Amino acid sequence: MKIQSHLYIFIIFFSILFSGCHSEQKQKIGKSEYQQKIDSLIKIMTLDEKIGQLNLLSSGWDITGPTMDPNFKQFIKQGKVGAIFNALTVEFVTELQRLAVEETRLGIPLLFGYDVVHGYRTIFPIPLAQSCSWDLSMIEQSERIAATEASAEGINWTFAPMVDISRDPRWGRVSEGAGEDTWLGSQMGAARVKGFQGKDMSDANTILACVKHFAAYGAPEAGRDYNTVDMSERTLFEYYLPPYKACIDAGAGSIMTSFNEISGVPSSSNRWLFTELLRNKWGFIGFVVTDYASIFELIPHGVASDSAMAGELALHAGIEMDMQSTVFINHLKKSLENEKITLKEIDDAVKNILMAKYNLGLFDDPYRYCNAQREKEELLTPVSQQFARDFVTKSCVLLKNENQTLPIPANIKKIALIGPLANSKEDMLGSWSASGKAVHCITLLEALEEKATKYNFKIEYAEGCQIQDPSVKGFARAMHAAKSADFVILALGEHRNMSGEAASRTNINLPEVQQELANKLIALDKPLAVVLFNGRPLTITELNKTAPAILETWFGGTQAGNGIADVLFGEVIPSGKLTMTFPREVGQIPIHYNVKNTGRPIDPKNPEYKYRSKYIDCPNEPLYPFGYGLSYTQFEYSNLTIDKPELSKSDTLHISIEVSNTGNYDGFEIVQLYTRDLVGSVTRPIKELKGFKKVFIPKGQKDTVTFKLTPRDLKFYNLKMKYVWEPGEFLLFVGPNSISGLSAEFRIL
Ligand code: NOJ
Predict the structure, then answer these.
(1) H/E segment holding residue 707
(2) Is any atom of ligand 1 closer than 6 Å to the C-beta of 501?
(3) Using CA atoms, how far apart are residues 308 and 459, in angstroms rounded to an integer?
């Protein structure tokens, strides 16, 4: 009897819901067409069922934070869960989805979330590395592949892109973002959303994006993860908020709160942020999920005295789904009885979550993402491996190359490969490696072995030392290997867990033992290239003084070794440019290229003069600036021209510059456009990135690179916090990085 009545409700419910729905599923169905179905559903839902939709629990298959409730399967059956994260594979997802769809009264399907941050099984370079490619279409394509793989294993929702701007390399999570620049970060975030969500979210190979972490999580005091954020409203609006907005405008279906407070208000209780700004002003129509247990954390933050109050604050702020703190499920009912919250607040939250499920096509087919055939065929395909390899080559940044040490000559006889990162499969994955497996990663040693067959040289490999252990026992073997080699490759850097979440460092030097090893090997005076593996800019001032060549490779993922070897042998010419400044010293942090001039800038004619904005023990300039990166070839910039010296409101400035490849290799160059607003109602940065072009120029040839600029591109928050451009004098700069290039002046009337 029970089963029959169950089935009856189920059939009636689905026939209401799906009448006339199938033919439309292939096309993008507008919000209003689902709205009716959602309204009908809301009418028959009990309060418990509604609150259940707001609950997101981890399956515990992957641990991405403190685990709180192991009873998730029971909860699903009781209709107390709207979404699950960290549950993978078609078999497991099917099992859990079945509990929701077949064993609960209304059979509402679950969302399945996961941190698909730089690939799912095929792991691509970490996002910071990807950003150094300045290649928006590759970034989008990598997320298309990631979404295809993830959705083939049951996942329909990713906790990405992470678009937190950061100027502080002590913060370990810089590895997950696109660096320090707002404009570039906005474009990259939007590209990722498009890659994940594809053309139609109801296609089975697309997944829902979740922009994170709203807001300003990348600016914690002293670079310490989860720490307090305090900044002016102008800085928040101008530098930190635009990337989230760009992702919303690109259609991101969900957004995640951040752990931090801003100006005394923790994100998960910030009504201004989530309701006034995000919903009312930006018109966000997706749903808001908290970061891990951050509703509960309103208690230690000191804005809620207990869990009930925390839940009320969060719901009232506009938070709709509670990740892992079980505050909503345990307290909202009582809070409603006590009239601390309204039923409308709950209903609104449920509606937005149901809408996401409709958009994903889950009401049409809850098992849409559970296709065992796809799971067999669509992971780690040769095409995605080749793409991953290419992406590694595009993400590497050549930091130094004295006397053209690189590329390694093809007639080399013996290479000594030394260092703790030369053969560490695990570390290639970087942080947030989703379902990536160390066993699938190609190390530099493995890749060199292949090149050795191709170019006919010998390799001697010695670990030299470990990543952090101070023991120097392995030095002797390493020195011995290097002495008999005619080229030394030194693979140094961080362990993959030294960056990422909860991995802030106060000292971002190379671990001491590695620097010591490098000093000894460099002193042999052999052709030597350092290959760096790390998740953040490092203070490699000492290394930079003596190492003949330095190639920054970050953590390259599954195909790391192959891509790096392609670059080392000049099969691919490096073209990456830094998207985060490398400081000389930790004391320079926060550091970024788009600084203000101050009232006391250093006078270039008298740089030693005391009363200027400078340090007495270190230059102001970074070790490597934003936008910097070398090639094996050389590019020269000439003939910067603008088509008019003055422009009015509706004019477009046309800019052109000649870029010549004067070196010996064909190669890509990332040509960058910056501006400076000389006088404003508020101070303006000395440079702001406004555009870039990545161009391929064969050796001996030149290209004319053009840009367009309009007054709209020069908007900022003026004295009254209005987003406007102001007339006056401007400088523009076109060049290979944020500190060099040619400049011109123009005026806006
Ligand atoms: C905490 C992290 O801050 C967030 O980025 C991630 O998505 C969640 N844990 C879930 O793993």
Answers:
(1) strand 702-709
(2) yes
(3) 63
Q: Which two tokens stand for residue 301?
A: 């933050």
pLDDT, the chain, mean: 95
Helix (H) or strand (E) holding 460: strand 458-462
Question: How confident is the model over 340-358, as pLDDT tens digits?
Answer: 999 999 999 999 999 999 9
Helix and strand totals (H; E) in the chain: 24, 26
Respond yes or no: is residue 62 known to be catalytic: no
| Helix H or strand E segment including 243 | helix 242-249
As a whole number of angstroms, the distance between CA 361 and CA 185 comes to: 30
Token look-up 């669509």 returns 378
CA distance 253 to 28: 14
710 touches 654 (CB < 8 A): no
The answer to whether the CB of 118 falls within 8 A of the CB of 555 is no
Distance of CA 91 to the CA centre of its chain: 30
pTM: 0.95
Q: b vs e for 215-233, b when ≥16 Cβ sit within 10 Å of the residue's Cβ?
A: bbbbbbeebbbbbbbeeee
How many Å lie between the centroid of ligand 1 and the Cα of residue 548?
Answer: 40
| Sign of the four-CA dihedral 508, 491, 439, 576 | positive
Domains in the chain with CATH codes: 1-112 (no CATH), 402-588 (3.40.50.1700), 635-748 (2.60.40.10)
pLDDT for residue 20 is more than 50: no
- Is 64 a pocket residue for ligand 1 (Cβ < 6 Å)? yes
Please check the confidence at residue 98 and state whether its pLDDT lies above 50.
Answer: yes
pLDDT for 28 beyond 50: no
Residue 481 token pair: 């290997």
Residues in the chain: 749
What is the Cα–Cα distance from 429 to 408, expressed in whole angstroms?
26
* DSSP symbol at 415: E
Q: Give the tokens for residue 291.
A: 């970061």
Structure tokens at 457: 């040289």
Dihedrals φ, ψ of 552, to 5°?
-85, 120
Per annotation, catalytic residue among 291, 322, 566, 677: 291
Report CA(557)–ligand 1 centroid distance (Å): 20
Q: Check residue 66 and give its pLDDT.
A: 65
Report in angstroms the alpha-carbon separations of 660 from 336, 572, 626, 671, 673. Answer: 69, 19, 22, 11, 17
Indicate whether 547 pLDDT > 50: yes
What's the CA dihedral at 627, 630, 631, 634 to 10 degrees?
100
Amino acid 67: pLDDT: 59
Type of residue at 530: V
Cβ atoms of 277 and 324 within 8 Å: the answer is no
Q: Note the maximum CA span of the chain.
A: 92
3-state secondary structure of 320: coil
Residue 331 alpha carbon to ligand 1 centre in Å: 23
